[in-house]
Fold this sequence. Notes:
The protein has 484 residues and is mainly α. Among the domains are: 1-189 and 448-484, Serine Threonine Protein Phosphatase 5, Tetratricopeptide repeat, CATH 1.25.40.390; 267-363, no CATH class. It is built from 19 helices and 12 strands. The chain has a two-stranded antiparallel ribbon with strand order 1-3. Strand 11 and strand 12 (454-455) form a beta hairpin. Helix 5 runs parallel beside helix 7, helix 9 (206-220) packs antiparallel against helix 10 and helix 14 (370-384) crosses helix 15 (392-405). The longest helix is centred in the N-terminal third of the chain and has 26 residues, at 128-153.
Amino acid sequence: MKTFLNQILLPALFVATLTGCSDDFLDKNPPQEIAAGQFWTSEGDVQMGIAGCYARMKGTYVTWHRSYFDAAADNGWAQHYGDIRLMQSGTLDPANSGAPRSLYTSCYQGIASCNTFLKNFTKVSLPDAAAKAYEAEARFLRAMFYFELVQHWGGVVIYKEVPADIEQLKIAKSTKEEVYKFIEEDLNFAVANLPDVAYKSGHAVKTSVQALQARIALFQGKWDDVISLTSSIISSNKYSLATDLESQFIKGKGQAACPEIIFSIKYIETRDGRQSNDGGQEVEFFRWGGLAPTKDLIDEYETGDLRLKKWYYYSPNRTTFEREDGFKFQTEFTATNYGLIKFAAIWDPGRFIPSERDILTGHDIVLFRLSDIYLMNAEAQMEKAGGTTTDAKALSYVNAIRTRAGVPAFPTLTRALVRKERRRELAFEGLRLFDVVRWRIGKEINDKLIHSNIRLKWDDKFYIWPFSQSEMDINTALKQNEGY
């Protein structure tokens, strides 16, 4: 496998524009000619360049694969992804870094694309407001990639611009404080220059930035910042909870008009625009049984919780899915007896055709939605109050989520209740490991039963991941994280 250092030095402009270009464009303008000056001559080129930056959000473990990180902790079992199970099995190390190495590479590819865009888009004459908006989008995306890195590795290498050659890539990592400062600078610019409108088109808006700022503050335990940022999003009245439990995740259930979504990664239900040539979420998670919820997670839901019925199913023989109307379908082996259908259009006959490669899964991948904002606000209010709160707003936010799920309201919020509600509501949206790490509850999840006789083997060094040995070998200035 190519290392990050080799991949990032692909012709930079080609990297940034490849996914936004047609085959015809590349035939007529090969990468070496694009870089030589045939590009960056019109606003259309700028739009294509920023599209390339957004396309980097579709990198491995940045997009729909992020759900698999729930199976790095106690929410699920990744049947076909041994790379994800390294933390569950206690075997994550520099020589065996699997999924973390893939995420690391995806993030730096995204950063390279953003830096390439920022270096070149000013060659086009644009109105000042438009130029600032394009810059703000690229800096928002770059900040998101850096946050993925810093939350998992702590201090990492910061590239603020396109390196001239491979030697300029071989530099020491910055401290995590320096990384957060760089992220803050990017997001401060983005929040000041992106449109203050509801999110719809796929382009980031002001509230998308505020949602990322809130998540970063949540990770750092900056409760006042979390409350301020989430309150601003809520009081903007641009978003509301969907009345159902499917439109947030499934295109055919009205995802495009879902009032809850604040930022997402866009796909379309065509052969070229779908999540994966292998079918994406609906094939890997559902038909292949590739991401199976643990009984420990299922047991967190209360009797009558509608999320149990809408997002999961039970299979006594581990291979049969039965829909409410009696329709049955044979899946591959589901190791835990439970299947995941949170992201599956189980009512659509097109999801059950024999040829899996012909399934056109084009659901957008939601990175921020209002229920997450509600839960962040409630947690911050609760933590600021010392672990328990009866704050009316905090209660209203959590209870709105619970009412939609058909379960009774809470009269009081405690730390345990808020954490359970986050686990239930946000399951398989790629946030369980995020919560385990920031709450430092590794010892609490250690030795949990995953399935059969397999138990989770957490090691506290997993709060920070190792740099892969292949990267250490190439970038000799990179110092390994403690414990590895």
